[in-house]
Amino acid sequence: MSNSPIIRKMQIEDFQQVVALYRELVGDSKVASDLSGRKQWQQVLSHPGTVVFGLEKDHQLCAMTTLHVLPNMTYGGRPYGLIENVVTLGAEQGKGLGRRLMEHVIAQAWDQNCYKIMLLTGKMAGARGFYERLGFSDDEKFGMTLRRIPTRN
């Protein structure tokens, strides 16, 4: 019998499973998986306002995303949320796990009084419809980036 999926905050001990998901997101060569990667993972986890949430099913990490809640001076000083690195294992896509995780993370941002939540998605990734079904829109603003390192292929 399979266990119901659970969503929890990722911890330093989750490093190896997290690396596997990051590799699915950006490829092997762009993920630090050695001692320096573990140190970087600790830095991410200890950054104020940042939480990495993971969804586990049958004791396997199947989906993950990062929520940054950032301080702000506008909108009465209410913070805003930034969601990054949304990934679901390819074999688990289309089963509602990513949606479940995103709904949880969105609720977390609202619970922290964020006045808005932002995210960027790759034009080639095909995820735009997924985010639109969750309520995200590009009607109001353009997302733009300036990169020093090329994006994934």
Give a concise summary.
By secondary structure, the chain is an alpha+beta fold. The chain is built from four helices and five strands, in the order E-H-H-E-E-E-H-E-H. The protein has helices at 15-26, 35-46, 97-111, 128-133, and strands at 6-9, 50-57, 60-70, 80-88, 117-119.
Describe the overall structure.
By secondary structure, the chain is an alpha+beta fold. It has one domain: 3-Layer(aba) Sandwich (Aminopeptidase), CATH 3.40.630. Helices cover 29% and strands 23% of the residues. The protein contains four helices and five strands; from the N terminus they run βααβββαβα. β4, α3 and β5 form a beta-alpha-beta unit. The longest helix has 15 residues. The N and C termini lie far apart (39 Å). The mean pLDDT is 91.
Any key phrases for this structure?
153 residues; five-stranded mixed beta sheet
> Strand content of the residues, in percent?
15-25%
In terms of structural class, how would the helical and strand content be classed?
alpha+beta
Number of strands: 5
Q: Please tell me how large the radius of gyration is.
A: 16 Å
The number of helices is: 4
SSE run:
EHHEEEHEH
The CATH architecture comes to 3-Layer(aba) Sandwich
CATH class: Alpha Beta
How many domains make up the 3D coordinates? Answer: 1
Distance between the termini: 39 Å
Mean pLDDT: 91
> What form results from the Cα inertia axes?
globular
The helix fraction, in percent, is 25-40%
How can the largest sheet be summarized? Answer: 5 strands, mixed
- The strand line-up of the biggest sheet is 1-2-3-4-5
Low-confidence stretches: none
- The CATH topology assignment is Aminopeptidase
At the fourth level of CATH, the homologous superfamily is Gcn5-related N-acetyltransferase (GNAT)
